[in-house]
Structures are given as structure tokens and as C-alpha cells.
Amino acid sequence: MSTDAVSATVTAPRPAWLSLTWTVPFAILWTWLIYALPALPESGFPALGVRLMAHGLIAVGLWLGLENTALTPRQRRATWLVLMASFTLWAAIAWTAAINGVFRTGASRLPLLPAAVLLPVIVGAPLLLWSKRVGQLLDAMPMTWLIALQLYRIFGSQWLAYWLRGVLPGLWALPAGTGDVLTGLFAVPAAIALATGTIEGRKGAILWNIFGLVDFAIAIALGMIMSPGAFQLIVPNGPSMAVDTFPNVLTPAFVVPSSILLHALSLRQLRRRSRAEHGLLRREASSQ
């Protein structure tokens, strides 16, 4: 998708676009830093900083959302601990495996990296989408939170920097990096548009989620058929795929599946809120 296609999906008042005046320069600056200072991403500190920040925001947002539910204090604490403990354990396992080279090509007979991408989604999506307790939480949370949180996707511009340095093939880096950057850049405008409460804003939020999921589908599919291993169908001319080592491997092994689940939760929340509002309108109409 092009920038124009993404722009058409998010209809927002002028103030929504003001967020681009700082997110676009930041994305450009980050891309330049990765390009000019290759030791920076290789150190793992940027990945650690971004993940800790996102982890903290999820923990705080989850707690604030639970406080607005009708659950008892004990139920709130139990729900928060179960969700955060599971999320933290998953992050710790993925981080430890990445540092120890578990996802390296040839480290195992089994394709562990594709499994790390797909299994959390296969297991986690049904639990999060069908859980009544999670549904209560989504009903109590502002719909903008799950969208604005994915501002971190602009850090995907690192793939574009790697392509410019000749480290990654453009066939993968260009669509994957561009899709990530566009998703991150339009996260805040989409959230602001949604906050207006208009039908256009809600449609924009839905299309933003769909765009983010399509970006992942393209990146995952291209990554699998271009990476050395059992699924490789394309051997790129020039640089080969090199995202199976720490810290870059954390993106497919953890960031991608966790972001997919955030998209799924956002879509569920939008659907539940829309159905609740339609039900309220029908009740008001029948009472008149």
C-alpha cells in the first residue's frame, strides 16, 4: 500500500494530522541513526528500551482499564497478574532464546522462528477473543489506547536502513519496513480520529488495523520464502536474509506476534463497542 492509500483510510480532523509533525521527523532521525551508527541496533539497547517502554505502558493501561470494570478488587488483581505474568514470561522466553541463538538458521531441525511467530497467535488469539473477562476489560478501556500504543511500529524503519546499507534484500526490507513505518506513523492520527466518536473515525480505525495486519502477513510470507530453510522459495541476489540473530530476531519472534494480538484485540473492542451502541439505540427507539 502507498502513503495515499493509508491516508484515505483515516479520516480525521486537522489536529489529528499535527502528530505527524513530530512522528515523521522522529522516524527519519531514527532511520538515519541506524544507517550511520550500525553498532547502535547491534548493541540491543534500543530494542530493550522500546520493549520495556511498551511493556510498562501495557501494564499501566491494563490496570487502569481494570479499575473501570465492575470486577471486585480481588478479581482485578487476579486478572492483571495472570495477563501480565503470561506476557512477561513470554517476553523473557523469547529474549533468552534470542540471546542464546536458538532461532539461528540450522540451530535446530525444526523451524523454530516460524513457530515463534505463529504459535503465540494460534494459541493466544482464541483465548483473548473469546474470554468474557477480557471482553469486560475491553468495554472499560478507551478504544484509542490499543491503537496509539502501536506508535512503536515506526522503529521498523530499521529495515529500510539495513537495506540502504546493503545488509538486507530490498524485496523484503522495502515492503516490511515501509508497512511498519506507515502503521506507526498513522497510529496516533487514527486514535485521534477514533476519539472524535464519528463513523468515519471508527472506519479509519478498523482500516488501520487491517493495514497493520496485512503488513505483517506480507512480511511473514516474504520472510519465510526468502530465508534459508525448509520454506525457502526465493534466493535473493545480493544480501541474504539476516534477521535470525539477536537483537533483530526479537522482532519476528516477539514483536510481530504480540502486535498481531494487539490488532485482534482492537478489532474486537471496536466490534463490541459498535454492537453495544446499536443495542442502546434500539432500546431507546423501542421505549419511545
Work out the helicity level. Answer: over 70%
Overall shape: it is globular
Low-confidence stretches: 1-13
Radius of gyration: 20 Å
Strand content: under 5%
Number of strands: 0
Query: Strand-and-helix sequence, N→C?
Result: HHHHHHHHHHHHHH
The total count of helices amounts to 14
Mean pLDDT figure: 87
Separation, N- and C-terminal Cα atoms: 47 Å
Largest sheet: none
What structural class do you assign from the helix and strand content? Answer: mainly alpha
Structure description:
It is a single chain. The chain is an all-alpha fold and 288 residues long. The protein is 74% helix and 0% strand. The protein has helices at 3-9, 14-17, 20-36, 39-42, 45-67, 73-99, 112-130, 132-140, 145-148, 158-164, 170-185, 187-195, 199-226, 250-287. The longest helix has 38 residues, at 250-287. The chain is globular.
Secondary structure: elements and pairs:
Blueprint: H1 3-9, H2 14-17, H3 20-36, H4 39-42, H5 45-67, H6 73-99, H7 112-130, H8 132-140, H9 145-148, H10 158-164, H11 170-185, H12 187-195, H13 199-226, H14 250-287
